Amino acid sequence: SEFWVYKDGTLNAVGETSMPIRFESMRNDEHYASTAGQWGCVRFIAGSKDNVLDNVIIKNNIIGVLVDTCVNQSPTISMKNTRIENCSYIGVYSRGARIEGQNVIVQNCGNYTLALTMGGSYEFVHCTFANYWRYATRTKACLLLNDYYVDVNYNVQYRPVDKADFYNCIVYGSLAEEEIELAKRM
Known about the structure:
Oligomer: single chain
Mean pLDDT: 93
Helix content: under 10%
Number of helices: 0
Distance between the termini: 36 Å
Low-confidence stretches: none
Shape: globular
Radius of gyration: 16 Å
């Protein structure tokens, strides 16, 4: 299953510190409490707007948050006090979106914790991106940032990164190599 926010739609998920809003599987017994890959993702379709995740926990899915290309100047999504964890693929997967994050934790993903692809605009303040994936050997960096995509005809299409600001953020993981991958078009 997946939770989709369609074009012209808005998700305003605002919880409280003592009672966060939770997106997770229904199984909470010991074996499933922290098992990744139990459900799809929270997906923001291109054209959704003014989405807010504040005091939210998203866990045990394939992709934590999938954010498609932004078609206006306001942020596609604003995340505050949000925790995304135990994703079997990617924690936050942006495809050309506009994301603002404050006090966000993304941790323990099978590939990237944060994949900012196809350009976009990003600002993260006081965030932690930590990857200590324990289910298999992880080969991807903790954070990916790129400015292109390959179209259906295998042509490389450039999409600029308008902004990628990280203020007082931690990017750390269990790889022996670099945890930040900057991939520019060829």
